[in-house]
Every structure is written in structure tokens, then in C-alpha cells.
Amino acid sequence: MSESTPLPASPSADPAPADGAACMPSASDADRPWVLVTGAARRIGRVVALELAAQGWNVALHCHHSTAEAEATAGEARSLGAQAEVFGADLADALACEALVPSVLLRCGRLDAVVNNASLFEYDDVAGFTVGAMDRHWRTNTAPAILLTRALHEHLLARGGTGCVVNLLDQKLANPNPDYFSYTLSKAALEAAGVMLAQALAPVLRVCGVSPGVTLLSGPMSQDEFTAAHRLTPLARSSTPEDIARAVRYLLESPAITGTTLLVDGGQHLQAQPRDVLFLARNND
Questions:
Q1: Chain mean position to CA 184
Q2: Long-range pairs, 127-131, Cβ under 8 A, ≥24
Q3: Which of 49, 146, 167, 250 is within CB 3.0–4.6 Å of 37 for a Cys-Cys bond?
Q4: Where do runs of H (alpha helix) occur along 123-257?
Q5: Which of 200, 230, 227, 194 has its CA nearest to residue 214?
């Protein structure tokens, strides 16, 4: 086993069967690494999974409720030459979260990387803050990533391998404002956890982060507000899902990087913003 996350082999010309059979690597693809992407049915998670599938990774696709969309994404990944399997779990349920990596290993035989993409994004501010809101965000955005990272590390130790975790964060952490208070706190905790996990789990496991800017419509933002927000950056553009996917792949395949975060946001983090970009775009619309 090499000193770093095994680099993916070239995509196979023959897509894996779509019958949901167990996906133990065959002799021809035993060296092709597996990555678990949480929240992979739609949006950024889907694009990340397909980018990795096209570049030599087999993909374990996590979803909560969006099973049909996850199966469709798995079909697309198979058409790109990857093996792909779908796993349903409520990550906010600690027992379900802790069972996820063992389920992946049972069906796929190995796991080399995790992309913690699944996220809760609900609005609150200081005046509206409740312990319940903080708890919901912590249970979805922070604790699952730690549990999955620990489980991957345990597997790699037992297997004698090395791997990588990439956590999806937010450029707000480099340029904070008090909107989306509980969400921001949960992502700040995840960023801090990533640094500590990188320290604790090296050299077996690297832990990195990607901080997107305004990437897709979310919350109450209208299309016009999204377009305006996307341009409120030094580069007059923010991130696309494809930008985020390429950044994730770069970190997964860069054996000298750990404990750091890539900001992929058109430079948004360079500008002081007193409120969330939604409200700035709304005022400029």
C-alpha cells in the first residue's frame, strides 16, 4: 500500500451491473478506490459523485429521503464506468450514522475516502436562536462527519491503507456575519474538528475542507437574487457545482495536503459583508 490515498485507475470501459448486486471488487478493478459521498442524490453531492465516477472512483451514494434520485445518480455513475451503490440513512440519528460505513464495507468491500456533503441550512439569527436549532444543525452538519471520519480511520487501520476525508464547509467561516447563526456555528465546529482530526488521525487519514461560495439556489433566494449574489465577488462570479467537485477531487488526490481548507468562492471571502449575501443581493436587486 502506498503512503497516500490510492490514485484512481482509469475508468473502466464496461459499466458495473445495475442490479444492485454486492460490489466486491473483481480482479480487474480491485485497485479502484471507493468514495462515500453523503447527500449525493441531488445538487452539489450529485455533481461531486459524478465527477469522481468519471475520474476513476467507485462511488457509494448516501441519501436520506431522495432514494429515486440517488438511484438515478448511481445509474449515471455506472454509465461513466464506475461501480455505484446507494445507501439510505438519517445521519442525524447517531446509530444510523454509525452503521453507514459498515454497510458500505459489507457491500463494497473497501472504502478509501469520504466526502461529507450532506447539510442542513435553516435560517435563524441571534434573537431567534434556540438550543433546538443548534442541536438540529449540530446533529446533521457536524457530528456525522466526525463519526464517519472515525469509522473510515478504523477501517483503514485494519486494512493497512490510507485515505482522505473532505468536509464541505462555507466561505462564511472566513468572512462571518450573524445571519444563519446556528448553521454557521455548526460549520465552524466542523472546520475546527477537521483540523483536530487531521492531527489525531495522521498519517493514516488526511482531513481537508472545501468552502463554497454562492453555488446553487437555496432557502428563500429567488433566481434574480441568486444571479445578483453570484456576481457580488471580486471575480464577478462565484462557485458552480463543477468548481466544487473539481476542488474535492484535487484534495482527494493530493497526498501532501491535510488540515486545510480550499475557498472556492470567486473571492467572496475577501470582502467584508455585514449580512448574508441573500440580503445584500436583495437590496441590490
A1: 16
A2: 128/181, 129/181, 129/182
A3: 49
A4: 131-137, 143-159, 181-201, 223-230, 241-252
A5: 230
- Whole-number Å distance between alpha carbons of 224 and 267: 21
Q: Identify the residue whose cell numbers are 464496461.
A: 14
Which residue carries 454509525 as its cell?
98
Contact 21, 109 (CB under 8 A): no
Per-residue pLDDT of 147-205, as tens digits, reads 999 999 999 999 999 999 999 999 999 989 999 999 999 999 999 999 999 999 999 99
CA distances from residue 62 to 1, 68, 88, 172 in whole angstroms, order as listed: 27, 12, 6, 26
**C-beta of residue 34 within 8 angstroms of C-beta of residue 82:** no
The per-residue pLDDT for range 60-118, each reduced to its tens digit, is 999 999 999 999 999 999 999 999 999 999 999 999 999 999 999 999 999 999 999 99
Contact 18, 61 (CB under 8 A): no
Q: Cα separation of 92 and 137, whole Å?
A: 9
Q: Say how far apart CA 184 and CA 189 lie, in whole Å.
A: 9
Taking the complete model, does pTM exceed 0.90, yes or no?
A: no
The enclosing H or E element of 264 equals strand 261-264
Sign of the C-alpha dihedral computed for residues 58, 24, 163 and 68 taken in this order? positive
The vertex-229 CA angle with 226 and 234, nearest 5°, equals: 145
